[in-house]
């Protein structure tokens, strides 16, 4: 993924709406990375992470058992909620991710999204993606309190974002408007679930699709935005060629 500044801009833009406490979003990131690795024009793709909040009313840190909260929220038994977590853990493992829902600590993600915007501002796509990955690992593997400001500063610093600048941004409200605009754009697009991929502001893909499906979308979008123009030299109707499975000499 190319840096934000300098030179000619990328030929393809991919925007991904997601939340850092969304397990399917973490899986979607892993699958998109695999898709991008197999995409012939991967160095010409600019990936931008956009903000989405599954629960904007959540406290900084939610107390109590996570499975119990899911059971109450969706009207199911705790046993079924734990079964869903076990299934999600197994699915994540297939994509190289390690989930530990038993120690996960949900919380409000607004500040995390603000720091993702800061990472993009200061270090472009590469730093933003590194911060995104660290926040996913914090939420689903390490059991970090993702809504705690000091924890966030430490986490983003581990990903390469300056701790002092991160702390200052949290204190002065920086990028709150950018997060709000991402949320508003999601509503305009009609996004109700994440992850949601938008390619060149023309193509939308919902959900953590398999890597081969995502790569197919990238190939299709690239081909449609880079059509081949066939040129015929002046004064010539066309050169000799073989066609239709045969070739006359």
Helix-strand blueprint:
Blueprint lengths: L11 E7 L4 H15 L7 E7 L14 H9 L3 H17 L15 H33 L6 H10 L4 H10 L3 H14 L6 E4 L3 E4 L4 H15 L24
Helix pairs in contact: 1-8, 2-3, 4-5, 5-6
CATH architecture of the domain at 12-62 and 105-225: 3-Layer(aba) Sandwich
Total strands: 4
- How many strands, which pairing sense, and closed or not: the largest β-sheet? 4 strands, mixed
The amount of helix comes to 40-55%
* Strand proportion: 5-15%
Mean pLDDT figure:
91
Q: What is the element string, with H for helices and E for strands?
A: EHEHHHHHHEEH
- Gyration radius, in Å: 22 Å
How many helices in DSSP terms? 8
Order of strands across the widest beta sheet?
2-1-3-4
Shape: globular
Secondary structure class reads alpha+beta
- CATH homology superfamily name of the domain at 12-62 and 105-225: Glutaredoxin
State the CATH class of the domain at 12-62 and 105-225.
Alpha Beta
User: Would you tell me which CATH topology of the domain at 12-62 and 105-225 applies?
Assistant: Glutaredoxin
What ranges have pLDDT less than 50 throughout 5 or more consecutive residues?
Answer: 1-7
End-to-end distance, in Å? 47 Å
Give a quick precis of the structure.
With 249 residues, the chain is α+β, with helices and mostly antiparallel strands. The chain has helices at residues 23-37, 66-74, 78-94, 110-142, 149-158, 163-172, 176-189, 211-225, and strands at 12-18, 45-51, 196-199, 203-206. The chain has a 4-stranded mixed β-sheet with strand order 2-1-3-4.
